[in-house]
Amino acid sequence: MNTRTIRTLAAAFSLTAALAISGCSGEAEPPLVVKGAFMPQPVSDKMAGAFMVIGNPTEEPDKLIGATSPLSDDLQIHETKDQKMQQVQSMDVPADGELRLERGGNHIMFMGLKSTPKVGDKVAVELRFEKAGSVKVELDVKERTYNAQAPTSTADHGH
After folding, report:
1. Is 144 left (phi over 0), alpha (psi -120 to 50) or beta?
2. Which residue has the higher pLDDT, 124 or 6?
């Protein structure tokens, strides 16, 4: 009976270890990737915008559902349609695609800033996604006139 108990325990331990290892293997999708995150230096402490490209290398679509920052207690997701800005509850991040938050388009709006960041400062933001959870990002504070150059598609065939 002792040998049987030891074998049973060894088998249970092996199965548990195998399950734990497989749960930590390459099964998990890579996280979302945030590039080019910046905030133009705000004109006042009333509001500011945040812009970036959120890449989703996974096969599963996701949604940007919120954002928080020590700079403001009120961060809003805004979409721009027909040159009109409106707050929305979420934005799609397509599978194997990207969500572009850029000037004149969709963006994150900081309302009621606690301070006014200057060029060269960094602003911490935590983006919340429906599936990927939270992603921490640092926004580079740029000149008010700064506009990021849109990178060419990764499908570009550089000759």
Report:
1. alpha
2. 124
